[in-house]
Task: inverse folding
């Protein structure tokens, strides 16, 4: 076995060690495997009000957000195609949800009667995962500096 420099993880000597690079594991063996984490970002505008906050809480009033959604998929790339999944396939799963969410009052959607960022994240997961089994994480940004991540 070759030596591995602890500072950079680069193998030295005759045996090569796997290198972790931005979520990908590259192996130098006869069956090259590359696992990746792929992130696709979407945006929509919507209004909501939180139904389970004290009466004087500002979020109990109807207000809107510019939401940003990140769908994170994980798995091995298809060696023939050279990718994990076509971005267009992700878009085809997301677009019907975007149609329901964009410029909507989230409280009016089935399953989002109390549309907190946390509940919206789970709702997106539940609606995407059956059609994208490689889904690893859903991230919902409610504002520029506030987000929720859910990994099922």
Result:
């Amino acid at each position: 076995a070759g030596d591995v420099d602890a500072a950079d993880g680069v193998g030295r000597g005759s045996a090569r060690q796997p290198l972790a690079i931005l979520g990908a594991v590259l192996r130098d063996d006869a069956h090259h495997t590359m696992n990746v984490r792929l992130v696709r970002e979407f945006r929509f505008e919507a209004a909501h009000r939180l139904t389970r906050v004290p009466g004087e809480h500002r979020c109990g009033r109807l207000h809107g957000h510019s939401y940003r959604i990140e769908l994170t998929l994980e798995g091995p790339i298809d060696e023939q195609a050279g990718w994990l999944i076509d971005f267009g396939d992700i878009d085809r799963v997301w677009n019907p949800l975007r149609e329901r969410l964009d410029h909507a009052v989230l409280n009016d959607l089935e399953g989002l009667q109390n549309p907190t960022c946390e509940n919206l994240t789970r709702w997106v997961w539940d609606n995407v995962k059956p059609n994208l089994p490689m889904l690893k994480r859903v991230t919902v940004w409610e504002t520029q500096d506030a987000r929720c991540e859910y990994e099922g």
Observations:
- The two ends are 39 Å apart (CA to CA).
